[in-house]
Amino acid sequence: MPNPRVLVIDDDPTFRALVVAALRREYMVSVASDGEEGFEKAVEWNPDVIVLDHQMEGWDGIRTLRTFRQHFLLKKVPVIMCTADASRATVMGALNLGAADYVVKTAFSAESLRAKVEKAMNMYPIHA
Predict the structure, then answer these.
(1) Nearest CA among 110, 62, 111 for reference residue 83
(2) Half-sphere exposure of 26 (CA within 13 A, CB side)
(3) How big is the CA angle at 101 (ends 45 and 76), to the nearest 5 degrees?
(4) Each residue's pLDDT tens digit, 31-83
(5) Using one digit for the tens of pLDDT, what is the confidence trace for 67-76?
(6) What is the pLDDT confidence band of residue 5, given thresholds at 50, 70 and 90?
(7) CB atoms < 10 A from the CB of 45, how many?
């Protein structure tokens, strides 16, 4: 069975590279630099988990997450939101819209991200 697919959507190339480096051993990883590109890639690529930046130009993470939840192929794909804003309102807003988990960028840990991706895949198996 091929490695699970993780789509990383983030407009910060440095953070995107950190996430890819953390995940590429266990997962097939694809990237997008904004929400609209990420949505198009998700429809085409059928990821098992999406790691999505909250604050981006154009389609921000909330608009992108809402669009995923309205699309028949993507509505059940677990999304892990990444944010530099760790406020309760931001985190709860993302979780209430259907995010599976969140990562605070200022406290980023590769081990923590891998654990959250694994947990999301086990809690929301979409290809089982």
Answers:
(1) 62
(2) 13
(3) 45
(4) 999 999 999 999 999 999 999 999 999 999 999 999 999 999 999 999 999 98
(5) 999 999 999 9
(6) very high
(7) 13
Model pTM score? 0.93
Q: Which two tokens stand for residue 75?
A: 């509505």
DSSP letters, 6-44, are EEEE-S-HHHHHHHHHHHTTTSEEEEESSHHHHHHHHHH
Residues linked to residue 81 through DSSP beta bridges, in sequence order: 52, 102
Structure-block tokens of residue 122:
């086990």
The alpha carbon dihedral of 23, 21, 71, 61 has a sign of positive
